[in-house]
Amino acid sequence: MSINQSGWRPEMAEERRDTTVTATGNKALMLEEALIFEIGDTHTTGVDIADAAASASKLGGLERKAEIGLPGLSEPETVRHYTRLSRQNYAIDLGLFPLGSCTMKHNPRLNEKVARLPGFADIHPLAPIQCVQGALELIDQLAHWLVTLTGMHSVAMSPKAGAHGELCGILAIRAALEARGDTRKVVLVPESAHGTNPATAAFAGYAVDNIPANQDGRVDLAALKARLGPDVAAVMITNPNTCGLFERDMKAISDAVHAAGAFVYCDGANFNAIVGRVRPGDLGVDAMHINLHKTFSTPHGGGGPGSGPVVFSQALTPFAPLPFVEKAADGSFRLVEEETAEEHHGQSFGRMVAFHGQMGMFTRALSYILSHGADGLRQVAEDAVLNANYVLRSLDDVLDAPFGPSGPCMHEALFSDAGLAEGFTTLDIAKALIDEGYHPMTMYFPLVVHGAMLIEPTETESKAALDQFVMALRSVAERAKTGDQALKSAPHFAPRRRLDETLAARKPVLVWKEPALAEAAE
Amino acid sequence: MRYLPLTADDRTAMLARIGAASIDDLFVDVPEAARLDGPIHGLPNHASELAVERHLSALARKNTVADDVPFFLGAGAYRHHVPASVDHLIQRGEFLTAYTPYQPEIAQGTLQMLFEFQTQVARLLGTDVANASMYDGSTACWEAITMARRITKRGKAILSSGLHPHYVSVANTMAKFTGDVLETAAPTLTAEPDTASLIDKIDGDTSCVVVQYPDILGRIGDLSELAAACHANKALLIAVVTEPVALGALKSPGEMDADIVVGEGQSLGVGLQFGGPYVGLMGCKEKYIRQMPGRFCGETVDAEGKRGFVLTLSTREQHIRREKATSNICTNSGLCALAFSIHMTLLGEAGLRKLAMVNHTQAVAAAERLARVPGVEVVNRSFFNEFTLKLSKEARPVVWQLAERDILAGVSMGRLYPGEDALANGLIVAVTETTTAEDVEALASALEEVLA
Question: Cβ of A85 under 8 Å from any chain B Cβ?
Fold first, then answer.
């Protein structure tokens, strides 16, 4: 106790910040770092490359003459530059990252190790298939897990991310409809859906119509049924949904959609809440993407790469994209591509990407899946849901939980900004959480709740970690309710204060320019 | 289970706080018929780290590793040496385990890196701006076609016969659904790309011409005349670069007035990985930025006036614009963009140019050696680090025969263009700094035997 008393106290924060200025701008471990364009030059290189032997150029007279303008750094400078940059990032390795609907769970390092085995990392996508049997077998094993866990009929492995998977599913639906001469034009999407859902439907050539939510934060079944008709191609539903709730009427929704001649697309972003407890195939789903980073722990790397395999019902399987892996009668694996598809997969809607999808993510996901096994994956869903409900019920006395009364949540807890002092917003709470050492929750999404705060702790948080987070958020919420002005200027302790996003959009500076050039452009 | 920190006691205490009798009470909203009462049958239970590692290592050992054999595969994915520090740095947990930088005050590391990446990419491609990456080259190529449609309000795109067939295939798939009209053609085994016939196809309905540089056969064509022809018809020129190292030796597409330049960035930092994840590069002229898909990082200031970076121009994107967005893309390829950017920083201009010249001179030497093999003809007049051979036999079985001798000879055109008999004898051969003279000699002598 005596150590704590002689150290920092909250009331000291203001004076420390204002009186301490350093010559470098650094603050001890918080180190400023210039851009590579400011610290490097075009003559420096951190790679030793032998001089090229002199030979006649075959470059067709298009040799580069102009300077590119790429600065180089020596290896030590490079390592320092990126290490310093890394320290300006929050990450799941540092603490709770409760970004609802984004699912930031622990990324096991075994995944990284196996993905780097030369037998996976150093093989070419167009190598003769007899030279990559292990890779094809791995894809086949992962596919088997995904199909079995979801209770579906088949899986397309090639989509590059969740949104790309959505596109894959909607294209398969459109291909199936066209195969029966059906030219339906509309896709129905709930208001609470991820923005990618309506964008995907539009990208695939569909008009988008919204379906309203009911008081419980779920799809309004009666409104949906009333809207279904011969113009509706598909309904895109997120389940569990973005309010963190299971769509109780999912089976009834699917039945109604099928009766109307349409297909059910399920956004499987939140599959992590139900893996091992529910199979979407039992709920009448026709297509669903799985974000491997969300449910199966592949790293998100500051914005990708993702991986979005899509599982299909029997009805949509013939339309799945190329290429895919198939096990031959002799136990070997082959690749069904354009050339072989015609034999028995002639209805495929075609190729979505060069090559086979995100192999590096497949390796990691399979490593995670095998580690957990069927029993562990079920426990994953249970602990994720338990943790979210624990957060919900530990905070619903200080924060408004609009759907709290309707029962338990699934993997994420949703609060609104109701009850905050006049002029205080969800943004203020989020920025104050940064000062408390947390990445904020998802803000202002889903759109169906005012000032939404969507908190997803995931299963990889301990009870102690949750208790500390709850304590921190309670404290911030109470300050927001009593109108503590210090919240309005948070964060105070991050590498940067609040950033001017309006300026960034009004006068976009998207690339670095020499100061003189930048000035001339003003 | 090593990844799950809750204990049985924790679970009991937490259920008590929630007011639930058991975990099943939290799943009451699931219809009874769909509830699974135990682990799914027929799947194994959890396994130790050691067991999982052994299982996956056994699968890895069934593959032929590029580093273990003479290796000449390219055609859109290239083997280059990646400095050790690249992989070390991208495994920093603060990069590896961060999400999309939605809270810029605590994501300046990712954001500054993306700003540097965008600048590097724009300079390399010769464009005014570049975005924060796409999934890969093939999807970036299709996105560029849709971008040209939005800009020109025309629906016909002309795809060069030298464009990677997978890229053509992706575009064909998507166009079936969007109603875009694509003019495509298979290549011919000729020494130069056929720019003249491409120019002939441009008319008042053309939104864009898509041309690969260097093309699928490795040939290098001047884009200036093509750009002028496009612009005379108010169409756009889209250039596709599948081997970014080439731009260390060659004029950039932007210098030749291409409007949109997309590329596959895998060559730098990323590695082969059986085709993914890779990193799509995308740049354009400044006047088109509001039609670009994907994320942009932009410079701004914070409340104290310090320089900082944020994601910007998001009113183009799906989370704001929903069905009116420029694309449905959300996640991009952040970590691969980081690997690309670090590798590029290590190389710098001097290193990249040297690396490009090493690639080129070794490819020239290899082409000369292989041309001396009876039954082998080098098709290309121009190339960077990849060229096409015309064999006296069908190339695909030759590739298989050589694979049995542990030589990965290249990509047969029969694999890429099934059913195109005129291309069946074509073999695309890539030579990089990782290829040794011994490798070339091994390929040459094996070809001598197989073609004899």
Answer: yes
**Interchain contact, B97 vs A72, CB within 8 Å:** no
Measured between CA atoms, the residue of chain B closest to residue A503 is B300
3-state secondary structure of A508: coil
Range of the domain at A385: 374-504
Q: Could you tell me the pLDDT band of residue A171, with boundaries at 50, 70 and 90?
A: very high
* B8 has a chain A CB within 8 A of its CB: no
pLDDT at B407 > cutoff 90: yes
Contact B89 A107 (CB under 8 A): no
Please report where in the chains the tokens 């694999």 appear, as a residue. Answer: B415
Query: Is B305 in CB contact (< 8 Å) with chain A?
Result: no
A276 lies in the same domain as A420: no
* A277 assigned to some structural domain: yes
* Lowest mean pLDDT across A50-59, A491-500, B340-349: A50-59
- pTM of the entire structure? 0.96
Looking at CA atoms only, how far is residue A402 from chain B in angstroms? Answer: 17
Q: Cα–Cα distance between B203 and A352 in angstroms, integer?
A: 28
The reply to whether A428 and A496 lie within a common domain is yes
| Contact call for A35 and B335, based on CB within 8 A | no
Q: What pLDDT, on the 0 to 100 scale, is given for residue B364?
A: 97
Domain boundary at A365, A392, A407, which? Answer: A365
Establish if A380 touches chain B: CB-CB under 8 angstroms: yes
The predicted structure's pLDDT at residue A19: 59
B329: pLDDT strictly greater than 70: yes
Q: Is B288 on the interface with A (CB under 8 A)?
A: no
How do residues B31-79 score in pLDDT, each as one tens digit? 999 999 999 999 999 999 999 999 999 999 999 999 999 999 999 999 9
- Pick from B1, B107, B179: CB nearest A89: B107
Interface confidence (ipTM) of the complex: 0.97
For residues A262 and A206, state if they share a domain.
yes
Q: In chain A, which residues have their Cβ closer than 8 Å to the Cβ of B415?
A: 126
CB contact under 8 A, A386 and B333: no
Do A403 and A290 have their domain in common? no
Burial B371-399 (b: 16+ CB within 10 A, else e): eebebbebbbebbbbbbbbbbeebbbebb
Dihedral (C-alpha) B158, B162, B163, B164: value to the nearest 10 degrees? 150
If pLDDT is split at 50, 70 and 90, which confidence band does B322 have?
A: confident
Tell me if A164 is assigned to some domain: yes
Chain A residues in contact with B410 (beta carbon < 8 A):
none
pLDDT value, residue A8: 46
Q: Residue A21: its pLDDT value, please?
A: 85
- In the prediction, which pLDDT does A11 show? 55
Going by C-beta distance under 8 Å and a sequence separation of 6 or more, which residues neighbour residue A337?
Answer: A322, A323, B418
Average pLDDT, chain B: 96
Residues A190, A146 share a domain: yes
All residues at 6 or more sequence positions from A328 whose CB lies less than 8 Å from its CB, including other chains: A334
Two structure tokens written together for A326:
């198939």
CATH, domain range B84-343: 3.40.640.10
DSSP A81-148: HHHHHHTTB--TTTS---BTTT------HHHHHHHTSHHHHT--TTS-GGGBHHHHHHHHHHHHHHHH
Closest-approach residue (CA) in chain A for B401: A128
Contact B351 A47 (CB under 8 A): yes
Domain count, chain A: 2
pLDDT attached to residue A518? 76
Residues of chain A contacting B46 with CB distance shorter than 8 Å: 371-373, 375-376
The verdict on A176 and A208 lying in the same domain is yes
Instruction: Tell me the sheet residues that pair with B250.
Output: A63
CA-to-CA separations, B42 to A137, A271, A333, B38, B334, in angstroms, rounded: 18, 20, 21, 12, 37
Domain B66-81+349-451, classified CATH 3.90.1150.10, yes or no: yes
Distance of CA A152 to the CA centre of its chain: 23
- Cα–Cα dist B400/B154, whole Å: 44
